[in-house]
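Q: Predict the assembly, please.
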Amino acid sequence: MLNGKEYIDSLRGLNLEVYFFGHKIKSIVDEPMFQPHIHAAAMTYELAHDPEYEQIMTATSHLTGERINRFTHIHQSIDDLVKKVRMMRLLGQKTGTCFQRCVGLDGLNAVYVTTYDIDQKQGTNYHERFKKYLLDVQKNDWMPSGAMTDARGDRSIRPSKQANPDTYLHIKERLEDGIIVSGIKAHITGAINSHEIITMPTRTMGEEDRDFALSFAIPADTKGVTYIFSRQTNDTRRLDGVLDGGNPKYGIVGGEAIIVFKDVFVPWERVFMAGEYEFTNELVETFAGYHRSNYGGCKVGLADVVIGGSNWIADAHGINNASHIIDKLTEMIAMAETCWSCTLACSYEGYRTPSGAYHINPLLANVTKLNITRMVYEWMRLAQDIAGGKIITLPSEKDLESPETMEILTECFTGKKGVSPRDIIKMLRLIENMSVGAGLPEAMHGAGSPAAQKIMIARRSGIDRKMELAEIIAGIHKDKYFEDIIGKDETAHWDEVKKKIKGKKVQIY
Amino acid sequence: MSDRLSLAYMPSIGLRYCGGCNPQIDRSKVIRKLEEGLKERGMKLDFTTNRKSTVDIILLINGCMHACFEEEYLGEGNSPQFISIKGEMVESQYVKEDHIPEFLIKKIVDLLNSPSH
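A: Predicted assembly structure:
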């Protein structure tokens, strides 16, 4: 298993073609705009070596029996599912942002589950291929990015009917030794600092979209793959100094990028779906289920940080005992723990798939994520409320350090006795970073937008059975247990009741 | 029909239901349809929920894929001769609710005809 520093060093061995701000980036590892994201991902490696966290951060490979980083593990039990979300919360606490590696983990598990089912039905050998690939991932402790979302063009038109077929990743040519693919994947978390890319279809494909029903894995620096790094809120503050960024060590959100595949060759041994459109829904839903469950872990870890920060700032301002502050902090805690309860529940209610890998409860995972799309906004709103207007009016670090303004600003930001004004500003910047920036829409749209969760919830809610329950209670249908309790037929019972109450009137005064 | 099932001896099936907190399938209906299906095929089997009875096969009827009852059953070190229904999954195969009885009939016949039985 790599540690944090070894992971960063391993990235130096890759030769990715990355563009940002109109320039081709020479060294990803040395680029100040990328470094915070790389540090956040490095935490997933570093904590695996700490005896205090190894119980959660590592697992035993079912393929080799070796101890591996849990981010390369295929869940073998309910306990694994629970430990996975505990790991997410822990890493959220340690970074205060997205640590990016869960997408690849979910991709590995979703492809593992789906390839088994494809092979069972179609007699293909995708699953064995994938297991060989998984061995490499575990042996090298790779971080694969999970590339699911396509550019998608006109959403009302199927992938195969798009004016530009590259709006979806697709097979251009089938060769004896592999396939040639082209297309664009968008918003891909951790893409520029991953060793590998695992692709998955973004939606359910029909027969006419056969060439778009595609899953494979390739090294991140494969010929024909280019990256365009995306922006985050206040990102260039990283170039202004240390303080203004808010979370200069680990950044904000996941360092997403657009991945362009242009006539990329993928050897067959790295292809895990090539035209089996009937299984695209399974792959998408399995991945989405895993990924949505994570949000009740990582975002709650972030909540732990922002709740702590809010209490710290209230204390520094001398208002931490005010009843309205205690009330707001309690609200934040209750919401965060509600989301935690959801993700624990969807893990504990998981099940063994035919492949042997365990999957979360999809209904509860979608409920988890739907709650996150709402509650993150609410607890971040309360963090802003407690921190005060200062979080959007703070002066720059340069003014804090300028001889002309330093003294007056230090005076202005003085809080309770014994608290450094610079520390107050540090904490306010962190709260600004977490509650005002890109983390909010990320909680909304990451792992799918709320509408996607509602579709899954509606599909899996068992509404017909709920109607049956209501019909029995309402007396529309026979209630076997009620009849057993009263010892007679329900109709006869109510006839008797009617006789008994005949003549009795409600007294109205 | 199998030889085993055509003999005078009537094989028995032990029914074990999970708690049924939030089932994805109508467990009673599945078993009712199974009994009807067996009857239509002229197969006579004795169904019992009495846990003390000695039975040929046990049907674990879990309402959902989580299958908490299977965990409990296996944890108790019981006989391995069982078929586990886990919502819309039987053993390790996805089976739609309407097709579960048919699937079970085939499984039961296979088990009763197996040399180990």
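Chain A has a mean pLDDT of 97. The domain at 284-460 of chain A is CATH 1.20.140.10 (Butyryl-CoA Dehydrogenase, subunit A; domain 3).
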